[in-house]
């Protein structure tokens, strides 16, 4: 694939030249997109009196930093919510990383009758809305006695999902097959090849899968809403909604504390993205580059 | 084993391998894919069959299901205005939010693909909204779109007096669309990644021919991006048809009946029938109609794709 020649950079090409108009547009857009977050900060720092009169300002004018510690006190069980989120998310991430790598590798490399049909099914399942299986799954988990436990939210992740399988398969397909063949000559079995040769090279895509899974489970709302009733078991995503919907009639929810919760919900995602973005950009599923870096 | 290894190492397609080895390989294949296979059967295929059956029953999930045939579907289509409203809101939301997200994403990606300073910072700021979980986003926009919230303040600066978005049935769906536009940065990432893969030689050639930046965008960048645009279109559509948390949180049910009635989409309606009213059979029928709608639109997209999606001949 074509790369810009070193030293010159694509900047000399018209299509890549940044005009003042480019900068102006980008700055305005970035500002518009950042404003809601500034507003969140402003609400999170508001006093209870401001909440009651709903007189929030876009930029913070008061600084009640104690709101950030209040949510962990007796007022709200947000610490509990956070721990629940962490447990559910990390188990789900582990499940997807463990299973997707194996399945994707097999689809990319091993030959077996029926493989192509199965892979077609993998692709086809991506189109099926989760809502179709929602009710029977609920019945299944209810009959297993798993309602109001974390299990319905965690266990299905140990069976991988179509999109992740597809990602791993794409990634493995671009690794030179001589690697496996050499390993086979050296007497490694299929599992040995996977564990010793493939797994170390799969890290970028597995980490990407971990990030996707984390994003999905951390922010998931419908799953916990269906399966969890106890406030003490709710993850943060459901917890903060629960707080706003259960405030006494005629009384407005503690928006300042809810926004602290929203910040707590967003912050881990921002950190994970910041640390993990190089894997996301390296993964390059669009085709072209070799994939091994 | 020795002869097998020899064939494998001399780059000859593995036609000479023994059937024993093939069987072993097939066995390992099925062992490796068993997590997916079991998951598919237990969490997808089985439930789909069950759901198809439920959709033809009257069932509250506690007593035995009563077979009613296609009655649920007939009722939904001929005698359920709430369903038709939900369907309409879903179309409305998808038809505006998906193209809007794509155009915004494309526009931002193209700007970020230029040699701008502080590109990393700008890229992060534009991507930041995507990182905020939906629940938090909905919480935020309940405030942003409040009658005297900052969004209406900003409209006020432009001389527009904004509606009371979430309190008004007519404006509740546009409010959801405004919120969806905030996360347009999600598409930007994929598009930007794809833009970087376009050979620079093409632009150099374009330059020689005297093509302007705008012309280069339309003639070089855009055609190369059509596969990614297509991917985003499909995924965006599927996502939009399944919108749930946004509606559930942004327009809380019960508190603002008019607004909620003006924004309810298919999945919240399904959810309410299933877990609010325990009409499991009826809700299953809704889920199948939802599937049908998604399927029809995906097929239409794939049909038209032949005309506008440009695939490079893959070099292998």
From TrEMBL, chain A:
Show the Pfam families listed in the entry.
BPD_transp_1 (PF00528)
Species of origin: Streptomyces sp. R28
- Protein name, entry field: Carbohydrate ABC transporter permease
Q: Its domain of life?
A: Bacteria
Q: How does it sit in the membrane?
A: Multi-pass membrane protein
Location within or outside the cell: Cell membrane
Q: What keywords are assigned to this protein?
A: Cell membrane, Membrane, Transmembrane, Transmembrane helix, Transport
Q: Which family does it belong to?
A: Belongs to the binding-protein-dependent transport system permease family.
From TrEMBL, chain B:
Name the Pfam families on file.
Answer: BPD_transp_1
* Membrane spanning residue stretches: 27-54, 91-112, 124-145, 171-193, 228-251, 280-302
Q: Superkingdom of this entry's organism?
A: Bacteria
**Keyword NADP, does the record have it?**
no
> Where is the major localization of this protein?
membrane
- One Gene Ontology CC term in the entry: plasma membrane
Please give the CDD domains that the UniProt record associates with this protein. Answer: TM_PBP2 (cd06261)
- Cellular compartments annotated: Cell membrane
What keywords tag this UniProt record?
Cell membrane, Membrane, Transmembrane, Transmembrane helix, Transport
**Which residue range or ranges hold the ABC transmembrane type-1 domain?**
87-301
Membrane topology term reads:
Multi-pass membrane protein
In its UniProt record, which GO terms are filed under biological process? transmembrane transport
Tell me the PANTHER family matching this sequence: ABC TRANSPORTER PERMEASE PROTEIN (PTHR30193), ABC TRANSPORTER PERMEASE PROTEIN YESP-RELATED (PTHR30193:SF1)
Q: Which family does it belong to?
A: Belongs to the binding-protein-dependent transport system permease family.
Name-wise, this protein is Carbohydrate ABC transporter permease
- Native source species: Streptomyces sp. R28
Q: What is the lineage of its organism?
A: Bacteria, Bacillati, Actinomycetota, Actinomycetes, Kitasatosporales
